[in-house]
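Submission sheet (multi-component)
Chains listed below:
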Amino acid sequence: MTTQSSAKLKKWLTRLTPSGRCAILAVPYFWLFLFFLMPFFIVFKISFAEAVIAIPPYTQLMTMAEEQVQILLNLGNYAYLIEDSLYISSYLQSVRIASISTLLCLVIGFPMAWAIVHSSPANRNILLMLIILPSWTSFLIRVYAWIGILKNNGFLNNILMYTGIIDEPLRILHTDTAVYIGIVYTYLPFMILPLYTALMRVDYSLVEAARDLGASTTTVLLKVLLPLTKAGIIAGSMLVFIPAVGEFVIPELLGGPDSILIGKILWQEFFNNRDWPVAAAVASVMLLLLMVPIMFFYRYQKREMEAG
Amino acid sequence: MNKASLKLTIASLLTASAMNLQAAEEKVLNVYNWSDYIAEDTIAQFEAETGIKVVYDVFDSNEVLEAKILSGSTGFDLVVPTSDFLARQVQAGAFIKLDKTKLTNYSNLDAKIMDMLDDTADPGNQYAVPYLWGTTGLGYNVNKVKEVLGEDAPTNSWDLVFKPENMEKLQKCGVAFLNAPTELFAAALHYVGKDPNSVDPNDYKDTGEAYQLLKAVRPYVTYFHSSQYINDLANGDICVAIGWSGDVLQASDRAAEADNGVEVEYVIPQEGALAWFDLMAIPADAPHKDNAHKFINFLLQPKVISEISNYVWYANPTPASKEFIDPEIIEHPGIYPSDETLAKLYGAKVTPAKVSRTLTRSWTKFLQN
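Outcome: structure written.
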């Protein structure tokens, strides 16, 4: 064997064996495969089955009949979601509540992030800490605390009644208002942190320049700050919107009986109707629905990266 | 055979027998029961008596239990579903038949209750033994209801919550309904004179009488929830609840303890109410079936079960336990009803899948309006 051919072989081998870069990239892909794709396919598979009284409570898609594998796909579950207006209206209600909450988070979070960025470095760390600190206690306990604050006989109403601002207790608990309060409170840190990062990176000589050229505060905000922090706004909004759409615990504990969000519908299909296939179909459609904003975000980010 | 190899043989024999013992049954029992549903020292007593370590876990809705059972391989050795849920789970093949030779205290059970279960949830009494039972009736704040509706408030009748004119006044002090669609529909159907276990989907549709009845009082209901009313009744945050007997009475007990001037009472309405039985059953894949039998047998002792009734305010199916039960419980017509009231109670049956879907759908629509 000549040295030339052995060198060729070596080259060929190195091309076949995965490089370090591939190995590192493989880890997140493997993670996604194991914890996202696999569970999703299991759910997706169930959405084509039919409910039966058995363990597990749905039919198998693949059956052996006369030594042949038969696959039966039942599309009825998806048709059912369209037939009954309940599903569409609860998807819409979920999207509405999530959008309004996201907007509220943005309106409240932006000034807060701004204030943190513009405080002294020592205070900045303390303020950031205060944003993160509540998440050290259980999320469930914090939502229960809101029940104590908002209920008729609760903290807020007692204070308002004591000071004579109101005569009759305000009904906040078990209304949509309580749901908004709960969601905004819970997800606000997820909005503030990306906004903080984005606001930190802004080159403030641009703001000064705008000021020098006579721009009003509103103009500075709309024409300079918002465009410069767009990435942070989008990232924060995604982090709030996506979990808020599928939120179950907050509307269940704080919301009224009329807040039938998609999380609740899923629960009902799964637990009250024992219809796992329809529940799986609801979940699959929800994922597809959420894919739209995620794809939008992804494409935006890619464009930004290419531009930058 | 030399000494060393003899030693080895003995050692291996010993380990083998130890392993045999372990195969017979590890001294562990995994119990899955309702929350707040056992006396404080029942488990400790059982552990001391048998040396079996109990891992005790709780749930607060039949639906949650059922989802676990239907997923298979729960790891639980003993579960406590309500009668109509158990019936469906038996159909799915979730439980083993009980070995009654291991249940030496089986004869302590009330024959009347066993006959009723034989008729409804568990034909032949093969799969389950009742644990406790109760009713779905009315809990109310005695003083507040008087204040709002006057001295002759219909507190012993479903009129209290099903007549809009009463509800309109009661909404001021707060009314809670259970978020248990099957039980609420059963109550409504019974009130309008229909079969509470109707299998006709039309009875559950929004055009049906039961739905119309519920809808008329819907605007005055403060919330629908299956456990929050215990606290709220006790604190005086609400004044009327459709609730479970023992839960309402626990609220009454808490209010008395807090001495906050709230007096809560439970009543089985004179028209009749739903009686439900929570049944102990052993999952087909339970790892410690022997221990589960031992635990059931333990709970069938009159003294043991009487302590549980004394603690949770629910009636038990063991007549011999009555002598150990506190007088205020045994004499309470809401816990141990008179024969006249007993005759008016009705049980729940399994609803066909189509009916339960119609029912859930109507319930959702009802809540949204």
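Remark: The first strand of chain A starts at residue 62 and ends at 65.
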